[in-house]
Design a protein that fits this description.
The chain is built from eleven helices and three strands, in the order αααααααααββαβα. With 323 residues, it is mainly alpha-helical. The protein folds into two domains: 2-234, Cation efflux protein transmembrane domain (Alpha-lytic protease prodomain-like, Up-down Bundle); 240-322, Cation efflux protein, cytoplasmic domain (Alpha-Beta Plaits, 2-Layer Sandwich). It has a three-stranded mixed β-sheet. A hairpin with a 2-residue loop joins strand 1 (256-268) and strand 2 (271-280). It is elongated. The termini are far apart.
Length: 323
Amino acid sequence: MRTFNRFHRRLGTDTPVPGQARAAAIALGTGALMAIGKTVAAMYTGSASMSAEAVHSWVATVTEIFLIAAYLAARRPADSGHPLGYGRESYVWSLFASIGMFVVGAQVGFWRGLRQLDLPDATTDYRFGYIVIAISFGLQFVSFMQAIRFVRERAAERDLGVFKHVFDTSDSQLRAVVTGDFIALVGLAVAGMGMALHQITGQVAYDAAGSMLIGLLMGVAGLFLINVNRHYLAGMPLSKERSAAAVKALEAVPLVERVTFFFAEFVGPDRLIVVVRVVIAGEHDQATLSRILHGLETRIMEHKSVARAIVALATPEEMERVR
């Protein structure tokens, strides 16, 4: 996911469009070169593990294109036709990326490993393969650490650990980047070990097992990301802990006697729609109540994560329960 990391760092709100395109083109070119290098190494060495890694890199390069599309979709401003913005579209693009990782990466890795067991053992000089793996590992490690630093900053805002934030975040692209980089590092280590054990023992099964394990890693990662994106597309509510904190903050607002209903759902990465019903203290005419409710909506929408807030008066039944 080195491509997306570089693209993400450059895509600030003040970055001009030509700069965005240039950053994306350079980063995608770098990812493609890594994939080409692994492909050449796989052809030269005949290693199944290296072949699986080459496929992994090609899948990752295509995946990054989907993630960039998801990132751009989420940044599109709301309009009259889409008052909540286009954030949910990012989950669609991320879902495509996850399916590609599972369908292509996992199946090719398994198939290549099984096929290696049926081929005659033709152990070759693996030095070129080791060089490619070492360079790729170094580049991937830098990418992973950049992603972790970014996650750490975001996690600190919510007083969470790094990996807790990765699992809980509504940012599908960030989760895919961290997961992809981690799987890439593990995959490179597995490929290197599979090749080394094959070379040392002369047993081709080690190389085949490396390929199948890389396929398994991609399959598990793909299924995990598919499941998460599925939940957000179906509608993921705000956690109970964060909802309770929001209710507490609202009830501390002057004139708000009680919050009788609170619901918040993600409509995109770090973007929420919030629906609230409240009991207003005191007696007020309709115009005054309207101004109070509108003021509460405005106050809620001042939070950077709120795309839309709807505040209404509590129902008669809710008011009876409060009394």
